[in-house]
Amino acid sequence: MAPHKHATGHEPLNTLKPVATDIWLIDGPAVRFYGMPYSTRCTVVKLANGDLWVHSPTLLTEGLRAELQALGPVRYLIAPNWLHYVNVGDWQQACPDALSYAAPGVADRAAKKGLTLRFDHDLGQTAESPWADQIDQMIVQGSKQHREAVFFHRASSTLILTDLIENFETAKLPVWMRPLVWLAGIDDSDGKMPPDMRLTFRKTALAESVEAMIGWDPQRMILAHGRWYRQDAVAELRRAFRRILRDREWTAAMDRMRADDRNGNG
C-alpha cells in the first residue's frame, strides 16, 4: 500500500504528537486500501530505560527521524497484524539496532507480496520481556485470517489497537468514499470492526478477547484508522462490540437457567 496524496484531516503528519506521559502518536499519510485512502497512525512508547517501542510504523521522514533521535533510541518495531508491516523495512534500515516483532501471519503475507523483511521475534499471548512490566499484550482470538496483537500501556492507561475498530470521520473523507464508510458501519457515529473482518471471527472467542481488553480498564484507546478515543475507552469497547457481548451474556444467562433447572430436578 503506497502513500496517497489525499489529505487525511489529521494533519500535521509525520510528527510526534503527545498522548500522555511517555506515549505519542504519529499520524501518517493516507494509503490506498480497497481503492480508498485510509488514514494511518503509529504509536510510540518510551520505556522506563529510555528505549522507544514503535507500534505499526508509518512513513519515516527525515524530520520524524530527527524527532525520534532526540527522544531516544528506537529499539522495538511492532508489526501488529498482517496488514500493517509495509514500512518496517525502512525503519529497520534507519534503526539497525532495533528488533522487529511480528504478529502471526505477517511474515507470510510480506513474503507473498514480494517483500523481504526480517522479523526477529513472533508476538504471542503474553508480553515480551523487554516491556513485560510496562505494556500488556495478547493476540485477539477467533479468526484464522486476522490475528491482531493488541497492547495496553499501563502507565498511561492506553489501549493500542490497529484494525479491530475503524472510526472514520466522514467530513475528512472524499465525498465519494463517505457512503461506502456509512454502509460498512465504520464512520465516527458508531465506529466498529469492519464487516468483512467480523465475518472471519468466531463470536465466542472474540467476545472473550474483548472482555480481556475491558479487564485492563483502559482510559484511552488509539486506533490506526480514524478518530481515536481520548477518554471512555471501556464504554467505547462495549459499544463497538455490543452485539457479540450481548450474545455472550445471553448464552451465559441461558446456561445458568439450564444449570438451575438440572439442580432443581435433582
How many beta-strand segments? 12
Query: Structural class from helices and strands?
Result: alpha/beta
Oligomer category: single chain
Gyration radius from CA atoms, angstroms: 19 Å
Number of domains: 1
How is this structure best described in words?
30% of the residues lie in helices and 23% in strands. The protein has 266 residues and is an alpha/beta fold. The chain has one domain (3-265): 4-Layer Sandwich (Metallo-beta-lactamase, Chain A). Strands 1, 2, 3, 4, 5, 6, 7 and 8 form an eight-stranded mixed β-sheet that branches. It has a four-stranded mixed β-sheet with strand order 9-10-11-12, with no helix packed on it. Strand 5 (52-55), helix 1 and strand 6 (74-79) form a beta-alpha-beta unit. Helix 6 (203-215) crosses helix 8. The longest helix is centred in the last third of the chain and has 24 residues, at 242-265. It is globular, with a radius of gyration of 19 Å. The termini are far apart. The relative contact order is 0.12. The mean pLDDT is 93.
Short account of what is shown:
This protein has 266 residues and is α/β, with parallel strands linked by helices. It has 8 helices and 12 strands.
